[in-house]
Amino acid sequence: MPAGRPGPAAQSARRPPPPLPLLLLCVLGAPRAGSGADTAVISPQDPTLLIGSSLQATCSVHGDPPGATAEGLYWTLNGRRLPRELSRVLNASTLALALANLNGSRQQSGDNLVCHARDGSILAGSCLYVGLPPEKPFNISCWSKNMKDLTCRWTPGAQGETFLHTNYSLKYKLRWYGQDNTCEEYHTVGPHSCHIPKDLALFTPYEIWVEATNRLGSARSDVLTLDILDVVTTDPPPDVHVSRVGGLEDQLSVRWVSPPALKDFLFQAKYQIRYRVEDSVDWKVVDDVSNQTSCRLAGLKPGTVYFVQVRCNPFGIYGSKKAGIWSEWSHPTAASTPRSGEDPVAPGGSASPQGHTGI
């Protein structure tokens, strides 16, 4: 949603105001304290300009505020006083300003261009919106957790930064019929993402796209077509147990359970295991676990603590031909291999599930 804009800024009665912080919301104008009416007008008001553009602005005083003549006026931009040579007096009540080769706005709510009286009080303000139109979003990817929802994320264009507030809307509809729908739960897995929690159809493709809009234009991504059954992921495998294999000092046994959320659906599963030693950050991955729910790790170091994780790829759901999407890794589980010559039934060397350590 576009950022809200504040009301008129209050004027300091007789002394210059303190410098304005750069990240204030843009001021839109300022009444003279106690007058109940604006004492000056900036034109153009709240312009939107491309980066590199020039701006010709005027501040015109009306009424008869003491000391508020064009000769005594000056400009600030984001709280910084602009050099006098950028201004020129057009007549007794109007001061002009010329800005060239404008940079992108410092804040998405608009930069503060303010006209001041000689004593520093604010007479009028305008927002400058300087930026770029949005670029075409791309790289849309989506996944469904246990076929109950859909989450999508995207990349916001080649450059990304527009210097203006840019709104992204994820749209979707059934491919051959139905009306356009707009996703409502944004930023669920990052700044450019959205979550559709329910009311999704199976066995029918969806068309999904992203629209980007700001003050300078709009852009629309290519349409992604997908079937929910082709983008299913699931929770990590639960109940991961790691245990010793008798007195074998170079092996550990790993067992786990298939994701329970998919137990009532026709699907196949692939599993991966990764493990590392306690004092390392480097994981070794075992890819060839297939659809088994147990695996033996061999070639390990004796008397060493290993951390183990498992993840699942559910594919072929209801006959889908597409590859599945890997789940997150399970919570690490740890166990140690026996030391050389250690009694396999000695304390700490039990091969039973009760001897596993969950981390």
TrEMBL record:
It holds the Pfam family EpoR_lig-bind. Residues 31-121 form the Ig-like domain. It comes from Equus przewalskii (Przewalski's horse). Residues 331-359 are annotated as: Disordered. The keyword Signal applies. Residues 1-36 form the signal peptide. Belongs to the type I cytokine receptor family. Type 3 subfamily. This is Cytokine receptor-like factor 1 isoform X6. Keywords: Disulfide bond, Glycoprotein, Immunoglobulin domain, Receptor, Repeat, Signal. The keyword Disulfide bond applies. The gene is CRLF1. CDD domains: FN3 (cd00063). Residues 136-231, 236-340 form the Fibronectin type-III domain.
